[in-house]
TrEMBL record:
Coarse class of the protein's main subcellular location: membrane
Presence of keyword Cell membrane: yes
Lineage: Bacteria, Bacillati, Bacillota, Bacilli, Bacillales
Residue span(s) of domain ABC transporter: 336-571
Family matches, as SMART domains: AAA
Keyword Transport: yes
Protein name: ATP-binding protein
Top-level taxon: Bacteria
Gene Ontology CC terms, in alphabetical order: plasma membrane
InterPro entries reported for this sequence: AAA+_ATPase, ABC1_TM_dom, ABC1_TM_sf, ABC_transporter-like_ATP-bd, ABC_transporter-like_CS, P-loop_NTPase, Type_1_exporter
Spans traversing the lipid bilayer: 20-40, 52-73, 125-147, 153-174, 237-260, 272-296
Residues of the ABC transmembrane type-1 domain: 16-298
Localization terms from the record: Cell membrane
Amino acid sequence: MFKLAVYLRAYKKEVIIGPIFKLLEAIFELLLPTIVALIINRGIGMRDTNYVFKMGALMLSLSIVGFGCSLICQYYASRASQGFGTTLRNKLFKHISSLSYTEMDKYGTSSLINRITNDVNQLQLAVAMLIRLVIRAPFICIGAIIMSMVLDFRLSLILLVATPVFGIILYFIITRTAPIYRVYQQKLDRIALVLSENLSGVRVIRAFAKSRQERVRFNESSEDLTRTAIRVGRISALLNPMTTLVVNAAIIAILWVGGIHIDEGQLSQGEIIAFINYITQILLALIVVSNLVIIFTKASSSAARINEVLGTATSIPDLGDIDSTSTTNRINVPAIQFNNVSFGYSKMGELALEDVSVEIGHGETIGIIGSTGSGKSTFINLIGRFYDATQGDVKVDGVNVKDYSLQQLRRMIGIVPQKALLFTGTIADNIRWGNEHATDEEIMKAAAIAQAEEFILKLPDGYNTGVSRGGINLSGGQKQRLTIARAVVAQPHILILDDSSSALDFATDAALRRELKENCIQMTVLMVSQRVSSVQQADKIIVFEEGRISGIGTHDELMIGCEVYKEICLSQLSSEESRT
C-alpha cells in the first residue's frame, strides 16, 4: 500500500495541512469536558451565573472554531483523495494500455475494469480517511487519557488497562478479515465477468433461449459473493460491540471507583462528569478506529491488486528505435519474412505455430487459408507484434519487428480484425481513426474502396451519421466495410484483412478485392479467409494446417500439389469452379 504513496506527492500541502486543522479541532474538543467540569464546580456549585455564561460562550466559540477547522480539513481531504484517485487511475489506465495481449488474457477485462474503478475508489476513501481521521482518532484517545490523568491519575489507570484489550481485539479482526477481503475482490471480478458476458452476448443468449441458465449462473456467482461478504461481515461486526463492551466496562468501573472517591472527598461531581465525557470521547474515537480498520483492510487488498497490475511488465517491450521511413526504399528485401518461427500462447502449452518460414514480397496480394485453429490469426498477430515469437524471428522490410518502436511498426501495418469494432461518433470520425489528418476526399475514397460509400450515402446524414456504441445501429457487413475503410485511409505499407469480409455477400466481396487490387498497388495485402473464393485470385496462397504451412503457391499450383487446399476447395466449390 505504501508503494502507492508516490501518487500523493503532488498533494503534500493537503496531506500536511489537513491533519493539522483536524488536530486543532480535536484539541478544542478535548477542552470541552474540562470546561464543563469547571461550570459545574464553580459556576453551578457557587451559583455564579456570570461564570456560567462566560464559560458557555467559550465553549460555543471553541465549537465554532473547531467546526471551521473541520471544514478546512474536509476540503483538503477531498482535494487530495480525488486528485490521488485521478492520478492513480490515469497511471493504471496508461499501464494497462501498454500491456500485450498475453497480460490482457491473464487478468481478463472484467478484473482490470474492477481494479481501475472499484479498487481505486477504495484507495480514494482510504486517503480521505487518512487525512481526516487517522491522526484525529488516536489523538482523541490519547488526549482523553492524558486529560483524565490530570483530573485523577488513579482513576485513569482503568483506561490504561482497557487500551491493550482493545488492541488485542483489533489484531484479531485484522488478521481474520484481510485474507477474506482478497477473496471477496476476486469473487467481485467473477460477478463482473458474468455480467459483462451477459450484457455483450444478450442476443446470442436469447437466440438460444439460455436466459434461465444465465440467470442461474449469475445467481450462483452472486450467492457465492454474498456468502463471502456475510463471512467477513460477521467477523467485522464483532468490532463495534466488543469495543463498546470494553468501554462500557471501563465506564462502570470508573463510576464505581469514582463514587468511592466522591464519598471520600477526593473527586468532585464536575470531575466525574468530565471523566464520563472523556470516556465517551474515547468510545466514539475507538468506534472510528474500528471502522478505519475495516476501510484500510479493504484498501490494503485493493492496493495489492493494483500493485500487481502496475508491477506486471509487458512481454512486448517497446525498445526499438528504427524509423520506418528509413525502410521504405528497401525493395530488394521481402516486405514480410518469417524465419523458422514458432509460437505458443503459454510456455508449457501446445505450439500455435511451429517452424514457419515464408517470404512475402512488396505489393503482393497474399491469401491465407486453413481450418479453424490452424494458426492463421496467430500468424498475422506476430507481424503486428501483438505477440512475440517464441523461436525464430519476424522481419518487416528486412528489419526485425523488435527493432521498430511499436508506434512506428503499427503505422506501417493496417489490420482489420475478425470482429468489427466501431466507436461512438460519426462514420467520418470512425474512418478518420486510421488517419486523423485525412481529408474528406481521402475518407470518401477509402469508403469507396471498402464498398461502404453506397450505403453511407443512403443514410440521412451521410458521413456525419452517428454511430452507436459498438456500432449496434449498423449491420455486420456495414461495420466490416467501415473497419476496412478505416485501415485503407491510413495508406499502410502492409494491409491485413483477418477474415474481415465474412459478413459480405460474394458480389460485394469480389468488388472489394477488385478495388484493393486497382487502388492499393503499392500495398502488400494479406487476406485471411475461410472462403476459397476470397483468396482464389491472390498472387500466392499460404495454406495452414495445425500450426504449420502445408502449402504455398497459386490456386492452380495448390490444387495439384496441396491435398489440404484441394479438400477445402472441393468442399466449397464445384469441380468446375475449383479449376478456374
